[in-house]
Amino acid sequence: MKKFTFGLRSKVIILSSFLLILPWFAYQYVLEMDKFLRLGQEQTLIGTSRAIAMTLHERPNLFNEDATFLPHIETGKDLYVYELKKKIKLDGELDNWQEYISESLHYGEQYTRYQSVDNNNNPTSFRHMVGKRQGYLYGYLQVTNLYPVYQNNNARTINSSDHLIIALTSPQGELQHYVISALKKIWINAYLKPNTGDEMNQLQREKHIQGYWQESESGYNIEFRLPLEMLGNKLGFALYTVTNSAPQQINTIISTSNIHNKEQLGTVLIPSPEIEQIIKGMSHTQSRIFVLDRHQRVIAKAGDILQADGAWPSDALQQQSNDYLEVIKKKVLSPIYSLILAPPTNDFNDDLKESTQLNSEFIRQALLGKSHSDWSLSSDGKAMILSAASPIMVGNKIMGMVIAQETTNGIKTLRNKALEKIFNVILLIIFSATLAQFLFASNIASRIRKLRDQADNAIDSQGRILTLFSASKSKDEIGHLSRGLFDMVNRLRQYHFYLENLASRLSHELRTPVAVVRSSLENLTLLPQNSENKKYIERAEKGINRLNKILTSMSEATRIEQSLQACEKISFSINELLDNCGQGYQMTYPNYHFQLEITDKPLYVCADPDLIVQLLDKLIGNALEFSEAQNPIKILLKQQTSNALIEISNAGPLLPENMSDQLLNSMVSIRKQSHQQQTHLGLGLFIAKIICEFHQGQIQIQNRSDKSGVQVLVTFPLIKHN
Question: What is the pLDDT of residue 311?
Answer without folding.
Answer: 47
